[in-house]
Design brief:
The chain is mostly helical. The protein has helices at about 5-20, 20-35, 35-50, 55-60. Helix 1 (about 5-20) runs antiparallel to helix 2 (about 20-35). The protein is globular and about 30 Å long. It starts with a helix and ends in a 12-residue tail after the last helix.
């Protein structure tokens, strides 16, 4: 899903406000699909450090990925 730059900025603001695992994962996915690889990898590092959830950058781009299971 490709979105415009302003929508990406807003989504990043929301993620920084809440920092829930599901939101970090979806934000990383959105960034990856919009060719912001470094920023997506940064979100994945935060996800790993804060919640111990390790997801590869390649997994974000996997079309067969059923998605992140929300547990909150």
């Amino acid at each position: 899903m490709t979105v415009d730059h302003n929508e990406l900025i807003y989504s990043q603001y929301m993620v920084k406000s809440y920092l829930k695992p599901y939101d970090l994962h979806k934000s990383a996915q959105l960034l990856a699909f919009n060719n912001y690889e470094n920023e997506a990898i940064r979100q994945l590092k935060i996800l790993k450090i804060m919640y111990g959830i390790n997801i590869s950058y390649e997994k974000l781009l996997d079309d067969n990925d059923a998605g992140f299971v929300r547990k909150d």
